[in-house]
Design brief:
By secondary structure, the protein is an all-alpha fold. Helices cover 81% and strands 0% of the residues. It has one domain. Helix 1 packs across helix 13, helix 8 packs antiparallel against helix 14 and helix 11 runs antiparallel to helix 13. The termini are far apart.
């Protein structure tokens, strides 16, 4: 009997030891679950970090401006307007900069971190070194200030325009639609002017040309980008010796890029430094293009030495020109579009000064440019990656050659539009270039599939149903972006009118 009782006693003691031995694995599992919960909380709260820092940036800007302008008339008004301008600049950085860096990131020529770093530096440099468009462009080019009775109503109209444009761009960024910040500001100024003094205050001729640019900008950008891509396919990609062709034509394309961007920067980015007409800018571009072409010949020859006769080698050769063009676009964007963020603020500061001071203030003050430059950079860092991915990879697939076509198209289109006297949007041009490249690829692939022609001949023509299934441009993004473009000015105008009525009621 003792043996069974001994055996019975041992199982009675084992559950206690087993209980202790199982406590540690259970605790490890609990710790693992807690780690997953913490990781999920950090991931979900990451956007809130950007929101928090952005709110802190807006508050700091308002406080610094209030302290710095303590001796000026309307200090509180200027501080509040500076907060609105900071909010606007954040949204421009979140939405508009993607047009410059998106193609380079989508083509894997730049990492997301590298693109953000280059864009932040170039945008800030462009805004501070070459920004500061004449204030009257925004304050009197769209609405007649003389039609608005009293400087108080004009100041309120400019504040409403900034706030409404920022809210609309914020909404468009949330929807994943790249929109024109210029058109948002124009719509905001128009809506506030109508609310303040009626429809007669609006320069309808200017608004008509802006409406025409909705159609002209993306079509021009798309056609030029498709034409450049067709040239690259014809002369470089689909020839027996791709490397030899690249040694001939890539320096030419680099020269064209350098000349175009030199002319582009002379017209759009360096207006505060030097005033040039189109002919003078074209001569500068021609000289820069020739010099860069001569310098690129030995560089491309050296870089291509030992490369295989493959498209992968061409992607390597096009990578550096693409990165440089993206950086130049960011510089020009910072110089030109910083006025969208702080132009109304400059108009407010000018309106609140004495007549003698206002007459001398032909450009935006430097501290106003600082708000725009820092705000654009902060918005890009915290909110830009989503739009960069959308433009770079979610509309159509890009490689360095196609992305280079988009960048070159943006500069060429601006030059051509300036020569024709047409107002265009850099956002519409760049996104139109992406669509142009994608639709050209669709047409080219469909043509090869239907005829069996091309460098890789098909065994038989592809059926129509299969060709229709192989779409290279996402139609959902196409329709969303087009719709956002069409409603930008009306939506901004309506929001601005409501904001003006609210501001007038609160501070009137």
């Amino acid at each position: 009997m003792t043996e069974p009782s001994h055996r019975a006693a041992r199982p009675a003691s084992r559950p206690e030891s087993a209980k202790h031995s199982q406590d540690w694995p259970t605790l490890d599992k609990d710790l693992g679950r807690m780690s997953l919960i913490e990781s999920a909380a950090i991931y979900t709260s990451r956007p809130l970090i950007g929101v928090g820092i952005s709110l802190l940036f807006i508050a700091v800007v308002a406080a610094i401006v209030a302290f710095a302008t303590g001796g000026l008339q309307g200090t509180l008004t200027i501080a509040l307007a500076a907060a609105f301008a900071a909010y606007m600049a954040l949204n421009i950085g979140a939405n508009d900069v993607a047009n410059n860096m998106g193609p380079a990131v989508g083509a894997n020529a730049l990492s997301m971190a590298g693109a953000i770093a280059i864009a932040a530096v170039c945008e800030t440099a462009g805004a501070l070194l070459a920004g500061g468009e004449v204030v009257s462009t925004i304050s009197s080019g769209i609405i007649a200030q003389s039609e608005i009775t009293g400087s108080v109503h004009f100041v309120q109209a400019m504040m409403a325009a900034m706030l409404a444009a920022a809210i609309w761009i914020n909404t468009a960024t949330w929807m994943g639609a790249p929109v024109s910040t210029t058109h948002a500001v124009v719509g905001g100024v128009m809506g506030a002017g109508i609310a303040a003094a009626g429809f007669g205050t609006v320069n309808w001729a200017t608004m008509g040309t802006i409406a025409a640019s909705w159609v002209i900008s993306p079509i021009m950008g798309g056609v030029i980008a498709a034409a450049v891509l067709a040239f690259i396919k014809w002369k470089i990609m689909y020839v027996p010796d791709r490397i030899a062709a690249a040694r001939v034509w890539l320096p030419v394309l680099i020269g064209v890029m350098a000349g175009t961007f030199a002319c582009y920067l002379a017209l759009k980015g360096l207006r505060q430094v030097i005033h040039l007409d189109l002919r003078e800018a074209a001569l500068i571009g021609l000289g820069a293009g020739l010099l860069c072409w001569l310098a690129a010949v030995p560089l491309v020859r050296r870089q291509s030495r030992g490369m295989e006769n493959r498209n992968a080698s061409l992607k390597v050769l096009f990578r550096l020109p693409l990165v440089i063009s993206a950086a130049l676009l960011s510089f020009a964007h910072g110089a030109n579009d910083v006025a969208n963020a702080v132009g109304p603020l400059g108009a407010i500061v000018r309106a609140l000064q004495s007549e003698e001071t206002a007459a001398q203030m032909s450009v935006i003050p430097y501290w106003v440019l600082m708000i725009g430059a820092l705000g654009i950079s902060c918005g890009l860092v915290f909110f830009g990656p989503r739009m960069i991915r959308m433009v770079g990879s979610q509309i159509t697939k890009l490689n360095p050659m196609r992305a280079y076509c988009v960048a070159l198209s943006a500069a060429l289109t601006v030059i051509l539009a300036s020569w024709l006297g047409l107002p265009v949007s850099s956002t519409h041009i760049a996104v139109g270039g992406v669509f142009g490249v994608g639709f050209f690829r669709e047409w080219y692939v469909a043509r090869r599939a239907s005829t069996g022609a091309g460098p890789k001949r098909a065994a038989k023509p592809m059926p129509i149903e299969e060709r229709q299934r192989r779409k290279l441009v996402r139609r959902s993004h196409f329709m969303t972006i087009i719709a956002a473009w069409l409603v930008t000015v009306p939506a901004s105008a309506l929001l601005s009118a409501l904001c003006f009525l609210l501001i007038a009621a609160l501070f009137g």
